[in-house]
Amino acid sequence: MVEGDSNSPTWKFTQCFGDKGDVEDITEADIISTVEFDHTGNYLATGDKGGRVVLFERNETKKTCEYKFHTEFQSHEPEFDYLKSLEIEEKINKIKWCRRQNASHYLLSTNDKTIKLWKVFEKSLKVVAENNLSHDVTPATTTGAGGGAPRPIPQTHFKHASDLKLPRLTHHDTVVAAVPRRTYANAHAYHINSISVNSDGETFISSDDLRINLWNLNIQDQSFNIVDIKPANMEELTEVITAAEFHPLSCNWFMYASSKGTIKLADMRESALCDQHAKLFEQEEDPSSRSFFSEIISSISDVRFSHDGRYILSRDYLTVKIWDVNMERQPVKTIPIHEHLRPRLCDTYENDSIFDKFEVVFSGDTKNVMTGSYNNNFMIYPSDPEKETEVVLQADKSAFKAKKVGIPTPINSSTSPSATNGGKKGSSRAGSPGAGAGQGQRMRKETDADQIDFNKKILHMSWHPFEDSIAIAATNNHFTNDCCTTHRPHKASLTSMPSRSAVRRRQTLRDSHAHAHPRDGDAMTPKIINAAPSLEKAELYGIHDQRPTLSKLMGLAGRIFIETIPQWLSVAAMLSLIFGGCCSNVGTEFPVGTFPVEPASGTLLTFVQFIFVAVTGYISQFDSSRPPFFLKPNRVPIRRWLINIVLFFSINVLNNHAFSYDISVPVHIILRSGGSITTMIAGSLYGRKYSRIQIVAVILLTVGVITAACTGLAILFIAQVLSAVMGLYTEDTYKKYGPCWEENLFYSHLLSLPLFLPFFRSLIDQFMRLADSPPLKAPLPAEQPNLAAFPEMIRHKLQRVYIPSQVAYLILNVLTQYACIRGVNLLAAVSSALTVTIVLNIRKLVSLLLSIWLFGNRLASGTLLGAVVVFSAGGLYSLDSKRKPSVQHKAGSARVG
């Protein structure tokens, strides 16, 4: 529709509803928070921060698309949650029209917590026009003259039943009434950001920061949780849901966007809980352009389907993207909106403008898209990727009075001095009062950040489903614009209708309780299927805490107690497995590794360990409903584990194979403690940054390792490099797919077993030699009082039972190593690779001390000095890492939702 030639359509203002007062006089309750056309385009609804809904109907007497006031009603009132000590605002977040099936209108409106279904209909008022006393009773006959005592009512005698008349009612007036038919409450713990009606006309979805619920329009006390991204530990939260919408044609499809810049398309036919998305639309960010603000500006504020369901429209802070549902790799078109603000992101972060949630809409024919900006500007762009034009309009009364028009121009052409007034310098800007000097002058987008008024912004808008008419919300006014087909200025017809902007008295909690008359069925608590939301750390998701200071402190203390006790128990369990298993492993590893018959038994240790972990891991991954392998569905693709498997296998084989080079256990432990330097090197390749203290600590650690080892031991060094790479790779996997450590433990051991085939002959020989080791004989029955009662034949056989000592140590080694592996995987799932390295270094220090104490190992002075330097440098490194603030956490928690 928007072309670049001389016959291009021209956009002009047609109406402005709202007050004529100054912006400073606007009350908070009058600011419009949502605007929505119905499916026919004949009705328009707006909601404001005061909880009111205003409906407009089309004025059929006008040739252009103009509207007139229809009705207004109070949808939501301010409430107070006594359990959480939070005030619930009455602000209308979204309005959605339901399909009209009779003469009445049905629409959904929601605030932060409660959704209501409203029925709007025309009601006829009737009065009694005639009854049996209508001829005898008049006002003069019932009241005495001069206001004296009333006269007695004349007695009318009816002789026959036919003399009685039924009262007759006549039409007096027609009014528009609005009544709530359903109230869908108590189903969301976080702020509701979206509602969407299904194409089947029976269901709708509502989404908050962490969950999406499915409702039936006729059932208000039950909803089904279909998406739940809340992690078990809120510290692991990395994204929130920002918007959700049903497919316009397929009732089983819906999509939702997140603060990570991803759009997920889900199919409700796949499962009751749609954790696994069918399609993922995400554009990878260029690493060279990544900054502190990358996570904030990538958050999607709005997402829409085209009317035919073929395309998806998304808006983030800087761009608008158009996606083809059949192409997930990249958008078919990316439109820059606020690219001129990229150098000023620090300023927008300071004034919170970077968190503004701009909406975006398709035109009825999907040929154009529209979104808002600052200075009360809003823009229209063609959806065709080949067209690079824009129409800039301004929803401002100064532009309205100046009769400015919007016609297509090249995108961001306003940066050129010739964009207006023939290139004269000092020409008036679109947002300035002096811009209205001429009739029908072209509007343009302000790209000078110093001239932008961040308090004037267009966030909410709607496009007529069939015509080129749009509705724009600007503070307490809403504008309607129409598209004419000739490029000549038209006299704008201004139709103003004052809204009820007088400051209305807010009903206090005491008043509401004094006048409340609850009836049966008024209060309903819906049953939530598969949803048990809570409000821990709710301040991270935009929930404003207005409790008194004492209540905040008590709530904080209670929350800390409730949250920290399980965390402490979890940490204690992990550390017990790591330290208990690994330190016990020293006692079993030493005899096996130093057995004179076979010093190269490390590979056998690794092979037996892998078999044991694979068998035990299969139990946790077993699913009887998924033949032929009966394994649970993978959260991480198998191809993602392949690199991890090769690295893990190589590390274990190299570490255990190093024993064949006559390396003592203490030196072995010291050199393996050099994991911090390899982690730092691998981290630098991954783009990590390190402080000066950390670099000094790593240098000291390197010197300590060299001092302790003196020469050689290249095998262990290579193993450390591979271990560092694997740790960072696993950390990235957990960030992308979640902390699926059990899956990692199972597949890394199971799929590594075929890699032992080249060592098959050596493994058999090693095991046979271990089986020939001196036996561990069973104690004599005479020495065991409980066994003395056994028959002599059994006692004789027990005397002959023995277990090879090295096999016994091998079994104990497998069990203790398994405990250590589970602890390390648990820790890796909830912390960074660096944290795992530091904890393992401390564990190795304890193992070193145990090996010296248990087996009488003695360290040379140089080796002892190197050990001290290694573990001291590791401690220095960890202390500096804990001291540094997390920039990403600040960016993510500053304003979410």
Count of helical segments? 19
User: What is the number of strand segments?
Assistant: 34
Structure classification: alpha+beta
Mean pLDDT across every amino acid position: 73
Specify the overall morphology.
Answer: elongated
CATH-derived architecture of the largest domain: 7 Propeller
Give the number of domains.
2
Uncertain segments: 1-6, 137-143, 414-442, 486-544, 592-599, 881-897
Strand content: 15-25%
Approximate helicity band: 25-40%
CATH topology value of the largest domain: Methylamine Dehydrogenase, Chain H
Overall radius of gyration: 37 Å
Distance between the termini: 35 Å
How would you characterize the overall build of this protein?
With 897 residues, the chain is α+β, with helices and mostly antiparallel strands. The protein contains 19 helices and 34 strands. Strands 12-13-14-15-32 form a five-stranded mixed β-sheet, with no helix packed on it. A five-stranded antiparallel β-sheet has the order 24-25-26-27-28, with no helix packed on it. Strand 6 and strand 7 (86-88) form a beta hairpin. Helix 6 (549-593) packs antiparallel against helix 16. It starts with 9 loop residues before the first strand and ends with a helix.
